[in-house]
Amino acid sequence: MSLPPFQRLVDAHWRDVARLAHALVGPDDGDDVAQQAWLQAWAAYPSLTSTSNLRGWLFTVTYRCATDSHRGRARRGVPTDDETLAAATPARIDPPAAGSDESGVWRAVASLPPRQREAVALRYVADLDHAGIARAMDTSVTMSRRLVSDALVTLRKALT
Amino acid sequence: MTGPRPDRLEALLAGFDVAASRPPDFPNADVSYAVHDTSVGRMLLACNDSGVLVASLFTPDAAAEDAALVRLAARVSPRVLRRPDSLDAARRWLDDYLAGRTRSAAPPWELALATPFQKPVLTALVARVGYGERATYGQLAHWSGRPAAARAVGTALGANPLCIVLPCHRVVGASGSLTGYAGGLAAKRHLLELEAGSRA
Fold first, then answer.
1. Do residues B138 and B166 both lie within one domain?
2. Domains of chain B: total
3. Are residues B124 and B191 part of one domain?
4. pLDDT in tens, B99-127
5. Which residues of A touch B55 (CB under 8 A)?
């Protein structure tokens, strides 16, 4: 097995990693999360044991960075040390920059439950299939399908 | 999810984009490279994390560039990044050399991409064949301890990972014919004339 030059991953995927990071945590923290994800990917890269799905791996790293960042922020924002509570606190998400959400779809996404919102971002912004979403979110394919389809039902109602 | 019918909601979600975003920054690289257009063709220069040159290759097209990067990833480290600033000294030396402004040795290099057979050949080349001089493949085979291997020495030089930096262009056939060069025979002739002082 031989890993491709890292620059090839950066060139092919940096825009999609940025889109996913912004979709997951909003415009204020999107660039930070994307940068953090790349640094983590960089550190782990030489010890990767498979080259079969580098794109999915990058999105998984991005997802984990985004959820860490949110939990960190929720913890700072909530006067409690209860990790479980902090992790369960719905994180704030901002719609993309004002004016670029004419349909209001991202305002509607922002008010979804966190797991549904994350699954929607992984499915549509990162274009992962349900197996990829399940891997990133550490859940089952069945749960991934349910999260996305429940989200779509809510979003369709919100947009009509 | 709906069937194959185009779905406005799904299209809107997939169309999510961010306006102001930059490529990531990295504090360092195991291998830094730059693509440099020279008077003898497009080249790819690469150095390791200490700034020591490990590659100087003719890469006329994207496929050659990609092959060079794959080779660096496999032989040095997969953490290969495009960082032209790290190759400033090497690019300056190359430009000066090609303009006839310097006869000084190239910046520090090492044979990270060379095969075990190539190493003594390239080492002998650097030790024995100075600026403006020529040697034959047979002589170099002799100097590198493989007197019967002139042809293999030719192949080893043809795959020189540090073109121009290690002057394989100074090695010619026994009859004086140029025989071959990774950058093309016109480039080899140009370099030999440059060093002979018959070309500015």
1. yes
2. 2
3. yes
4. 999 998 889 999 999 999 999 999 999 99
5. none
